[in-house]
Amino acid sequence: MRSIWNGSLSFGLITIPIKLYSASEERKLELDMLDSEDHARIRYKRVNENTGEEVEWGDIVKGYKQNDHYIILEKEDFEMANMKKSKTIDIEAFVGNDEIDDILFKKPYFLEPQKESGKAYNLLRDALKKTDKVGVATFVMRQKENLCLIGVYKNAIMLHVIRFQDEIRDPEDLNLPETKVKKKEVDMALSLIEQYTETFEHDKYKDVYTDQLMEVIEAKSSGKKTKIEDVKSEPTEAKDLMKQLQASLSKKKNENGNGRKKKKKAKA
Description:
By secondary structure, the chain is of the alpha+beta class. It contains six helices and nine strands, in the order ββββααββαβββααα. Among the domains are: 5-24 and 79-167, Ku70, Chain: A, Domain 2, CATH 2.40.290; 183-224 and 242-267, no CATH class. The strands form two sheets. Strands 1-2-6-9-8-7-5 form a seven-stranded mixed beta barrel. The protein has a two-stranded antiparallel ribbon with strand order 3-4.
């Protein structure tokens, strides 16, 4: 892996030089945009809007528009805005792992110790594990301040960028129904959830769509036609809610019963 940010992680008076690595990657097919006429690739160019000429990356600068002109910003200007946050991830507080709402999470990163800081790194990692807490910190990366949590994943310290409060939209803006649900219906739904409850196994869930799309591509390349699956999704009406809950519960109970029979037979 290649580090994307170098600096230090600190809590109290302890400083740990670290490297930051992306902890996730997208799995998707690389599809190019083509002209529908001759299938030539579509390219994007950085064009000067006054001259219409293409501009090289090395000749591009960033600027902030003020009134009718731009204030040009150099690399040093971004660092001077807050030199400490551009170099240091400073833990300001520790909070319980269960206090963080899932909607806040954006992107995970791994932290790796450097410059003989392994012992301090392990000290923080082990302490976080035992307390089941995460550190709250802010730092600057790519000219943007990030709010983040410092926690542990397996045997590594993980930094998870989370959203600031003003980045979360208010769900009250949604047109949500006020229809009341009967207690009997809720009890039936609880029973259904219980039947579907199991231990989370991450490797059980696969990206099936990408694999199937690759099959379509391979079929087209060999001149074969792919059968189109007809999928219908009808909304469950309020009057049918109880009936469908009961049917779902019966279906799941039968599946669970068959699964247990198969396991017993396999042991014999």
